[in-house]
Structures are given as C-alpha cells and as structure tokens.
Specification:
homodimer, Jelly Rolls, Arc Repressor Mutant, subunit A, 4-stranded antiparallel sheet, 11 strands, DNA-binding
DNA sequence: CACTTTCTGTTGTAAAAACAACCGATTTGT
DNA sequence: ACAAATCGGTTGTTTTTACAACAGAAAGTG
C-alpha cells in the first residue's frame, strides 16, 4: 500500500492533501486495494456498488455491450482517476455499464458513505476530499457532454473531426496521440470500424489530416 | 420569493431541509431570482458561470447548435431540477452548451462557492445541501450515460426502442407520455425528424408500438 | 525465428439515413 | 373566428453507413 501514496497524492480525489493525512484517512475511508489482469472486470452491469474507486495502475474502460454484441466505450479511466461516483445515490441505483481493465491494473476502493458523511470530529482534510470528489464528478459530467457532442454529429467524418479537434485542443497541439486503437475509437464514436478506417483515409487523401497508428496531425 | 419556498422544499437541492431553514439559507447562499420568457436564453455557450440554478417554474432545454445549425438537445430540465453544477471546477471551465427556456420560466441562482464551502459556524443543514447537490449531479451523470446508450445505437429504430423502453421502464407502464415533440425527440436522439417520423410509423405498422402525439404505448 | 494473433486498410453490396419538398392537421395569436 | 405559424406524416432521391470478407502489416509468443 505504502508505495501508492504518491499516486494517490496526485489523484483528483486527494489533490491538496498531504502524505500523512492520506495515510491516516485510508482506514477512516475504508480503503481496500485490488489488482486486475488485463481483460478482467472491475464492475459489472447490474451490480449494486457502495464504493468509489481510484485507479492506481493501468487503464480501464467504462463500456457497454448490447444484446447484439455491439460495444460502446463510454469513457477511459487512467491512473489517478476516480470512478463509480456516479452510482452514489440515496435510492442505491445499479450499474448500467461494465468497467474492464484493458491493462493490468490496480484499483483502490473507498466506502462511499464514509466519504460523503464528514464525521464532525474527524480529519480536517475530509471536507477537501468531498470537494475534490465533487469537482471530479463535475468534470466527468462535462466529458460525457463532450462525448455526446461528438457522437451527435450525423456523419462519420463530422464525428472524427469533432473528436480529433477536441483532442488537439486539449493537448494544445495540432499533433497529438489518442488513447484508442481503431476498434476502440470506432466503439467510442459509435461507428463501424471499417467504415471509419475508410473515412480516415479519405480525410487524409483530402489533405485534412495525417496519421500513423494512434498519432494524428490536423492540417491547415 | 415567498411562494417559491414550497417548490424549493420539493427540489432535489433542498430535499430534507425544512421551510424555515430554506428561508434562512437563501441569503447565505446568495440566492437571486430571475424569470425568462419562452425562447429566452438562461445560459449561453462560452459563458463563465459561478452559479448553480434551480428551476422554479417552466421548463428548460440544455442544447447545442453546431456551425451548420444542427441542434442537439442534451437534456430537459423540469421544475425543481438543478443545473449548472457541472461547471463547478477549480479551473473555472466555460459552458459548452446553451440553456434555453422552452416555456415561460422562473429560475433561482445560488453562488456555488458559498454552497460547496460549508462555513464552520453556519447552518447545520448546509451539509445536507452539499450531499443533495452531490446526489443530483450523480443522477445527471447517469442520465447522460443513459442518453449515450440510446444514441450509440446504430439505427433510428434501435434508438427509438432504446429510448421508449427506458421511458416505459421509468414510468412503470407500457403506456406513457414523453416530454418531447417530434422535432425535439429527433434532436434528442440525434436523427433527422422526417426519417424518424417515418420509422415511428413503420414500427406502428409492424405492431411494435401505438402512439398519438406524445403518448406512446409499447405492445407485446 | 517461425508462428499466431491482432490490427488496419480495402473493396463491394445492401441497408439505412439524410435531405428536400410538400401537404394536411393542429395549434397559436389577435 | 380567421390568418399565421407550427407540427407531423409522406415520398423520392442522394448520400452515407453498416456489414462482410479479405489481405497485408504489425505485434506478441514460444
């Protein structure tokens, strides 16, 4: 556990909290650590959860497979990111998607009730954690809206332009890499892979973009 | 202002807080009331906001129009619902969509900084409000994911089935009404109105559904 | 290194959607 | 009540997508 404190310190949940405080909060928040091999499920659709989680190692995908096997990737979760917080509710709603490790990963879980109910006597940093959690879910909300903006576009080309433009913007450069391979990008944008691959090549032929593997460059 | 307390009491933000406490918190939270005529903008894309808001009367749409005039409706906000909370962030992000009154509406604004920083001396109900806000944004998050599930479907028919099934489920009946007219439903599902209208009629002819205006019934 | 698996691009076909244009019904405003 | 505006359905055409099948490139494995 010890060696993960530095990662937690940089995580969104514990931003602004010192090493010692984090250590002392871990038991207070009911922290438990688990590891997952690539391909293993962290959460499954329909489960009822009482935990929020932070990725300490690896990478996860929030995804949903429908009855016919079409996969939709809702979000990617990297090291230090929070997840599960959207299922905190008084009614106790169940998960509507899976969370899967796409690399070997380590995840730490916290009892959500202990997180949101700030014990009056307890650690003075607790309220910072609550605020952090709030910022995190707020940010996730914006990301979901941004994703909706992409997939709301009518054609594959428009979806790609919308997504790639945003990546360029957030990485502050016309040259950037994306965290998806082709199949994953297609699943993220909700289009057919081969059709998307085809469209990417047409866009390259039209002089709009250059790419090689997951490195892209927007032209003009 | 007085007559709105009963509405606020039923709102998600003040759930579990008594009338008197709400009254006394209003000034503490920097409450301000505004009214909007149908069609007027409450928030505009690009604005920087420091408030969260609760609808007291009427109905709003969170929507986005792209460069070519295609409108995407991201969410509908009814009386008692909270909005703006997704733009609470340490970095102070700007709005990426518009919020428009689709009926004559009344909205109350609260200074978000005063909401999330619980003054040590202050009202004991403040922490309830913070938790409520958390639940509210958490629920909104789930709604966004649900919307993504709908529009990730490949065909218009699948999108319609996905959406209508969920409405039936959440209204606990195979017969239900939806809060959209045809154009709005098309904008919500990111499809062309006429194509959608066409598909709805085909589904009716196939014996899947019945409908009249915004009343629907799922068959079988 | 050979072998397997995964990834990416390519092509053709069938299905579906977008788009445009139109009309009748309904609703709204005065 | 009447004119104007909005709404919902219909049709035909064009564009786009999904789907399937395949092949070369790249990456992983023993």
């Amino acid at each position: 556990m010890k060696n993960y404190i530095s990662i937690l310190k940089k995580s969104k949940l514990f931003a602004g909290v010192g090493d010692d405080e984090i250590s002392s909060m871990l038991s207070c928040l009911g922290a438990r650590l688990f590891t997952y091999k690539k391909g293993e499920y962290v959460f499954r659709q329909g489960e009822h959860i009482n935990d929020i989680a932070v990725t300490l190692e690896g990478r996860l995908h929030v995804q949903k497979d429908d009855y016919w096997g079409n996969r939709s990737i809702l979000a990617e979760i990297t090291v230090g990111e929070l997840f599960g917080e959207a299922y905190v509710s008084p009614e106790g709603s169940t998960l509507i998607n899976d969370v899967v490790a796409i690399e070997d990963s380590a995840v730490i879980f916290f009892d959500v009730r202990r997180v949101i109910t700030t014990c009056p006597s307890a650690c003075r940093f607790h309220s910072i954690v609550v605020q952090n959690m709030f910022f995190a879910i707020s940010e996730k909300n914006r990301k979901l809206v941004q994703k909706i903006v992409h997939i709301s576009k009518r054609t594959t080309r428009e979806k790609l332009i919308s997504y790639l433009s945003e990546e360029a913007k957030s990485q502050n450069s016309a040259s950037f890499t994306i965290p998806f391979n082709r199949q994953q990008l297609a699943d993220f944008l909700s289009v057919d892979r081969s059709a998307m691959s085809n469209e990417l090549c047409k866009m390259r032929d039209d002089g709009l973009i250059e790419f090689k593997k997951n490195s892209f460059k927007l032209l003009q």
